[in-house]
Specification:
Blueprint: E1 2-6, H1 10-19, E2 24-29, H2 32-41, E3 46-49, E4 54-55, E5 60-63, H3 70-74, E6 77-78, E7 81-86, H4 93-99, E8 102-109, E9 119-125, H5 130-138, E10 141-145, H6 149-160, H7 162-180, H8 184-202, H9 207-214, H10 220-230, H11 233-253
Parallel strand pairs: 1-2, 1-5, 2-3, 4-6, 5-7, 7-8, 9-10
Antiparallel strand pairs: 8-9
Bound molecules: NADPH dihydro-nicotinamide-adenine-dinucleotide phosphate and (2S)-3,4-dihydro-2H-pyrrole-2-carboxylic acid.
Domain Pyrroline-5-carboxylate reductase dimerisation: 149-251
InterPro entries: 6-PGluconate_DH-like_C_sf, NAD(P)-bd_dom_sf, P5C_Rdtase_cat_N, P5CR_dimer, Pyrroline-COOH_reductase
Pathway: Amino-acid biosynthesis; L-proline biosynthesis; L-proline from L-glutamate 5-semialdehyde: step 1/1
Length: 254
């Protein structure tokens, strides 16, 4: 299937890197130099400068600009797309329908791990497009269809934003190791292996079971966990997800 990405930023490039393995991919942007650089990095994609009257008739569009750019970019589109897949945080199906003509509308929330085909993507919208949407996003990781836009907004706060939270934790763990005197490159090697191993354990174990299995009475982990509780790390994570969800809802009202 041919997919046309509109926008050439971080997410468009992450998606293109993953999708090119299974699809024909075209990227439309406004800056020729940026597009040429992307084409060098991702061989096989086609690039196109956004026209003032860009014809999207019958195309399968992945809309990848920032939510605030929706109006200005959609004003330059003409014709009726086949499927419109939006990755815009918060932006509702109703808003999309008012701005861009398409036969089918789908909201998706991939994450930046799409570039390594490990995105966790939530999808909702037109049920007629469900099979195609799940097929496309399964080619770059895990694809989960949800029944409401509200669920997608909550998923945005976990898996869309989540790589930033986990990267922040990874960096902090490495900083802790450096503070204690270990070389930074070794700390990052440890953190990378730790994240990968824990992710594998999480596939078949409840988080609480993993935590309990590591925490020996009077041991090192108990000392560390107690410090995390003092820093209200769990409470902060819960609040972070809820703040991000509220922001998605707020973006949807604009
Ligand atoms: N970053 C992430 O991890 C995730 C982001 N998202 C969503 O993806 C979308 C894109 O985010 P991200 O890739 O991070 O953002 P970027 O800022 O990296 O990319 C935005 C793109 O939109 C283009 N653009 C903006 N205004 C215009 C315009 N008027 N005409 C043509 N092109 C325009 C920019 O062009 P130019 O390069 O020329 O400035 C750029 O290519 C957002 O809606 C976000 O909510 C969803 C999931 C994860
Ligand atoms: O921060 C954002 O708004 C976007 C949506 C999910 C990840 N990045």
């Amino acid at each position: 299937m041919k997919l046309t990405l509109i926008g050439n930023g971080v997410m468009a490039q992450s998606l293109a890197k993953g999708l090119i393995k299974n699809h024909e991919v075209e990227i439309i942007g406004r800056d020729e130099n940026k597009l040429k650089t992307i084409q060098e990095k991702i061989p096989g994609i086609t690039i196109k400068i956004l026209d003032d009257n860009e014809d999207i008739t019958d195309k399968n569009i992945l809309f990848c600009v920032k939510p605030y750019a929706l109006h200005s970019v959609s004003a330059r589109l003409s014709g009726k797309a086949n499927m419109l897949f939006s990755i815009l945080a918060g932006t509702t199906l109703d808003t999309l329908k008012k701005q861009i003509e398409a036969k089918h509308y789908v909201r998706t929330m991939p994450n930046v791990a799409a570039s390594v085909q490990f995105s966790t993507t939530t999808i909702t919208g037109d049920k007629e497009a469900k099979t195609t949407a799940v097929e496309i996003f399964s080619s770059i990781g895990k694809a989960i269809w949800v029944n409401t836009e509200n669920q997608l907004d909550i998923a945005t706060a976990i898996a869309g934003s989540g790589p930033a939270y986990l990267a922040l934790i990874a960096e902090a763990l490495a900083d802790g190791g450096v503070k204690a005197g270990l070389e930074r490159h070794t700390c990052y090697e440890l953190v990378q292996g730790l994240m990968e191993g824990t992710s594998k354990l999480l596939k078949s174990n409840h988080p609480a079971i993993i935590k309990d299995s590591v925490m020996s009475p009077g041991g090192t982990t108990a000392a560390g966990v107690s410090q995390l509780e003092e820093g209200a790390v769990r409470d902060s994570m819960i609040k972070a997800v809820n703040k991000a969800y509220e922001k998605a809802c707020e973006l949807g009202k604009k």
